[in-house]
Amino acid sequence: MDKKVKTSVRNLVEFVMRSGDIDTTYISNKRALMGIKAHQKLQSDGGENYKKEYFLSCETEYQSIIFEVQGRADGLIEDESVVTIDEIKSTTRRLDSIDENFSKLHWAQVMCYGYFYLKKEEKESIRLQLSYYNLETEQTRRFQKEISFNELEDFYFSLLKGYLDFSKLLSENKNSLTQSIISLDFPFPSYRKGQRKMMESVYRSIRDKKNILIEAPTGIGKTISSIYPSLKAMPNNLIDKIFYLTARSTTKEEAQSAISILIKSGLKIRAVNITSKEKSCINTCFKCNPKDCKFAKGHFDRVNDAIFDILENEYLIDYEILKKYSLKHSVCPFEFSLDIASFVPFVICDYNYAFDPSAYLKRFFDFPVESYVFLIDEAHNLSSRLRDMYSASINTYMLLDMMEYFTGKYLNIRKSIGSLVTSIEKFRFLIDKNSYYSTYDELEEIEKKVKKITSSMDTFLEEEKNKENYDEILSNYFELNNFLKISEFFDESFVNLFTSYKNDYIEHSLKCLDTVEIFKNLSIRAVSCVFFSATLSPIKFYAELFGGDNNYKIHLNSPFEAKNLFLANMASISTKYSQREYSYEPIAETIHEVIKSKSGNYIAYFPSYRYMEEVVRIYSEKYKNDNILVQDKLMNENERLKFLEKFTGSSSILGFAVLGGVFSEGVDLKGSRLIGSLIISVGLPGISPYNNLLRDYYNEKSNSGFDYAYKYPGMNKILQAAGRVIRTEVDRGAVVLIDERFSSTSYRKLMPKHFSHIVNYYDLESLKKDLKKFWESEDLS
């Protein structure tokens, strides 16, 4: 039986010694932004004898448990007489208010490092140092202690004692998981076509520590085919934890469902689904501080008992389970879920918790003590999401509004904001008739002014917490800080974009154009990244976005018979922008004739809300008896669910939805819940300054600018929408594309193999005739 428990020094110390409240004030965010630079400054000031980020580890057996604990001391200073371990802490507190007893946790951390060093080097004593660095004054105050090996050993074993019961639970859970994985059979009686190949490829990529791109059409069973082999890699010590990363809540549910099936098949796994902080909040108002939230007050006094309770009694921990235990123990559900994630081997979460510079989970990725695999679902979305994560903007409307709040002794902030507005306004005369101007030069003047504003706002935010509009000011402060954070990444793959709007304000955006180098740095957080989607064509394009040709790549064919899918293109209709107003009536008529061919549920997908609304207007006037549902721009999650719930096996509904939206991807309407879709246009993203800059960037890089910025993303949306129709081997359905461009060779080349039987139609009567035959053949069979 494996009785080894791995953790970091920080996690051990915080788990055993933490207490008190959650208080996510601006100061903690400020520290997160500036703390790294403070560490770097003191480390560089340490001189040639200062060894920074010094790795230390210790394996200790205590009460039959083997504790493997590791960490990095900020510094190790060696001179002739004594060795010093240095731990740096950044703060906004006045240094004269800090004494050597300021934080037991800080001393505990450096004491662990001291013990590890003495044990390894077989020495009797060491000097420990805490260095407090004030972020505003840039002054440092240091405290030192000379401590013997015996004192440190006694302290360290007291920590292990406090961690013991929890460690025994973790060890028991890990061993039961390992045994269950070894004996776990595939949870279905047979493999679907291509499924075994996908699983073998996933396992091989983990074993070889490589990334892999998998294009697997609907029906392969991508979710279970990525999870099952990843689990099988665990007993062989290839990985310790699986992160299932998704772009949408619907795909998180699919991952949960797969884990539930495996648990019913005998898998003894603890898994948690992380819901966003705002969605998981159970307080009456969304304010994370002890004054406004009873769950934040004393959270750390109670959370360890809550973790022990839930890990002892639950396996699949979704939001409802989290809520139940959060109410039972009076703890914050979001922070609770993050703690649970530290102690379970399977985590379901959004992309941003692994990749976003402002939201990634530092507890896992800044200093990993385990080996991870990233299972990246709907991977076709990742590049655009990364570009969004690494972009930021500020605008003169927000800044001018902010100025009104700073009066009296805060007039200096008002003046600083005014100076920033002036700097941005200088670009107004460069903005051309297209309402934008771009430059690839780094604009240090603007960055310095933003930095000055955020620094000068600290006193205001500390002293004026009861001021009206405080939350709005705080939100603006975070926007400015995010702008600064993104500016640190600025290089030749970024652009400054200045845009003017009708109400005369100017927006200054830092736009990321290319995430290849960014993702190379992010991907090393995992042993292997498994990118999978039904639509990763052309695969060379996506391979380049995800780090180049070094990745493994496989394409799987559709497991479904082509005869079950009627596939057509109404090639007589042009949806080009210049022809759109002439297309509304023919499109409405085509939709009506298609849904008349067989009673049931259909969705018509459009490239934009405006286009959709024009056709809906004509359609609802002309075909008043048809039962239609229309996607609304402002639908919340509950309204989206209600929209989908109306598509039942016995209903006859025509839905109108937008390509690339929530109803065109990640939606699983099996059987007669959806028997057909009509897809209008080739799905090109709207022409915009940013998309044109993307086009120009990739023209310069690979001479494929239009394809990279417009054509490939558009085609991906088409294939995703088409994939909503046939979900199982017994489904039959019709997909009708509407755009003359689909008949061209360049678009046919982008269509997958299972689209090879598509037929172009140039008159509606021929389409109606063949649709009738298709549905009649179903009745005959």
From TrEMBL:
Keywords for the protein's UniProt record, in alphabetical order: 4Fe-4S, ATP-binding, DNA damage, DNA repair, DNA-binding, Helicase, Hydrolase, Iron, Iron-sulfur, Isomerase, Metal-binding, Nucleotide-binding
PANTHER family noted in UniProt: DNA REPAIR DEAD HELICASE RAD3/XP-D SUBFAMILY MEMBER (PTHR11472), REGULATOR OF TELOMERE ELONGATION HELICASE 1 (PTHR11472:SF34)
Pfam family membership, one: DEAD_2
Keyword Protease attached: no
Residues of the Helicase ATP-binding domain: 181-424
Molecular function in Gene Ontology: 4 iron, 4 sulfur cluster binding; ATP binding; DNA binding; DNA helicase activity; hydrolase activity, acting on acid anhydrides, in phosphorus-containing anhydrides; metal ion binding
PROSITE patterns listed in its UniProt record: HELICASE_ATP_BIND_2 (PS51193)
Membrane-crossing segments per the record: none
Organism of derivation: Citroniella saccharovorans
GO BP annotations listed: DNA repair
Family stated for the protein in its record: Belongs to the helicase family. DinG subfamily.
Protein name stated in the entry: ATP-dependent DNA helicase
This enzyme's EC code(s): 3.6.4.12
